[in-house]
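PT: before anyone asks, these are the final sequences, not the draft ones from last week. 546 residues across everything. Please model them as a single complex and drop the result in this thread when it's through.
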Amino acid sequence: MTPSIRLSGAEVRRGGRTLWTGLDLDVAPGEFVTVLGPNGSGKTTLLTVLLGLLPLAAGTCEVAGRAPRRGSADVGYVPQQTSMDALTPLRGRDLVGLGLDGHCFGLPFRGRAERARKVREALLQVDALDLADAPVGALSGGEQQRLRIAQALVGDPGLLLADEPLHSLDLARQRAVVDLLERRRRDRGTAIVFVTHELNPVLPVTDRVLYLVDGQFRIGTPDEVMTSETLSELYRTDVDVVRVRDRIVVVGAEDRLVHTGGGPR
Amino acid sequence: MTYSLLDLLALDFVRNALVAGVVLAVLAGLLGPLVVGRGMAFSVHGTAELAFAGGAGALLVFGTEAIGWGALVGAVLVALLFGALGRAQRERDSVIGVLLSFGLGLGVLFQALYTGRSANKFGLLVGQIVGVDVGDVLTLTVVGVVVLGVLAVVRRPLLFASLDPDMAAARGVPVRALSIVFAVLLGVTVALGVQIVGALLVLCLLITPPAAAAQVTASPTLASVLAVVFAEVAVIGGIVASLDAGLPISPFVASIAFAIYLVCRALGALRTRRRVAVTTA
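LR: through. Structure below.
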């Protein structure tokens, strides 16, 4: 089967700085990959590459067997939660519809019934049919985020990229979003790349972790990567990984990076 | 009153004025929701002042024939500049304020140096729709059709890029290129508006109708339709009322647009209260 993502020897540079290099990663359909790491480690940049917005400095990248293209229907994208202005002239159905054909030029004459059906189906998948006619600016953060997921799913992508989609949501909302994604990959075999600062909300559904720190990275199951030895190596300092019931707590990692920053050696 | 409305409508200059007003209101109504969505109300004001400066400069140097071109050059140049400013609201606002006041100063200087008819001077500030001739109407209509054609092609990605810029960029919409296209469309429309309703009141065609529409609907299509209707009502009503009263057009356009806005706000407040009542029930 064609992997959803195939990266080999991938290197990314931004502003003259190499963010990471030599990244080999195959993501199978239906796989849930969680991308962790401090700010500036190139997590979002990975999504930018997969969206076809940034070429690799070296190596190759394939999405569904082809080079990534801008606006591809194979890829859905859920951005970090941003609140929309209260008077934004968009209803729930309009926001979702923009995910389907918002990037297309020309007048939308053909296929209106088909479009309406797809939008309806996407809203149904996230239990948001009741938000179809609501002004998006009047919705809560959780409701807007459900619409964002519908917007990402409306093109029926084989790969879903999510950039901190749980940010600023309360625990119940976080669980609802994770359940939605989990259901989607189970039912449709959609591969998911999930960028986050917080592993725990997605720990039960994560197949593999890609942990990026300062140009270095580790890939493996949560049990393989989330250990004191591995993270201490990555961060090049003493990091303690503690398991408390079904949660993983990392001590001594992020605070150091914030102070030192710097590029790879 | 010595003329009935029908008598007035039979006059050539009145018909020219009405056609010009109708075309301008269509453009303003279609661009307005995007202006509001992009948070560019202040840019429109700045663009209008630079169109005024350009028009006044052209009047001083080349005479009345060149006013339209001067306004167009001033408006498009500055709209491009504003379009390139990016989305950092605070920096954008201050740059617009700086250029706006400079443009206004230049315009006033050009007007002070101009020694011709004073009606030519004030037209650019407060509007001189009765001075519109057949040639103006033709130019306006041609430009209007071109703007509509471009808008038909770019409207969907432009709407996406205006209302949901991060997502649009992620979906491969050429956000920067579209903001340049939009700046040109806006500059052209503002330059035409300045010659008809005057620099001081372009805002009331480009901002007030979509702002009113946004109060009563969240559908982007209906918002555009309503913005066009509101702009038409304000312009046509303003022309007819100003002829009737023998006063400049702008106070009437502004008052009608403002009245529509107040009504829509009241309706919007009612709608919100009803929605809250439904969700808490």
